[in-house]
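Review this fold:
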Amino acid sequence: MKILVYTENREGKFSKQSFELVSYAYALAEMAGGEVITLSVGKVADEGLKQLGEYGASRVIAVDADQIPDSRNLSRLVQHWMSETGAAIALFADNNTGKAVAPGLAARLKAGVVSGVSGLPLILEPFV
């Protein structure tokens, strides 16, 4: 199972929350025998992108942009990269961006949304 993690950055630096999210995705991918792919939008130094690998990302997609797209366009961008990578799950931080983008993405994919997750699932089939 491939997991796409949207990693937010501010002024080119990832937040602690982004690294925690990648670590969570890595633990989930270990359970499912999958891989973690991160998506970052904006200008981030190579050192910052390499750090994502230290937290478990096997692939880092960096979209160089002067501006972060609005929530509608960001959901389209995430959907595009889910399709390109074959990711079955998209993870967002439990913050304003995640709360704005995830529902739109779910509607586009005809999928569900779970928010405020604080632990790994007990089982994967069904995802509980």
Remarks:
- The radius of gyration is 14 Å.
- The helical segments are 16-32, 46-54, 71-85, 96-109.
